[in-house]
Amino acid sequence: MEHKWKTIIEPFKIKSVEPLGLTTRAERATVLERAHYNLFNIRAEKVLIDLLTDSGTGAMSAAQWGGIMVGDESYAGARSYYNFETEIKGLTGFTEVIPVHQGRAAEKILFGVIGGKGKCIISNSHFDTTRANVEFSGAEAMDFPVKAALNFDKPAPFKGNADVAAMEKFIKAKGAENIPLCVMTVTNNSLGGQPVSMENLKAVRELCTKYGIPMFLDCARFAENAYFIKLREKGYAGCPVRDIAEEMFELADGAWMSSKKDALVNIGGFLALNNKDWSAKARQMLILTEGFNTYGGLAGRDLEAIAIGLREVLDESYLQYRIRSAAYLGEGLLKRGVPIINPPGGHGVYVNAKKFLPHIKPENFPAQALACALYLEGGIRGVEIGTLMFGKRDKNGKYLAAPMELVRLAMPRRVYTQSHIDYVIEVFGYLAKGKKAIKGLEVVEAPPILPHFTAKLKPAK
Ligand SMILES: *Cc1c(COP(=O)(O)O)cnc(C)c1O
Question: Would you say the CB of residue 127 lies under 6 angstroms from ligand 1?
Answer without folding.
Answer: yes
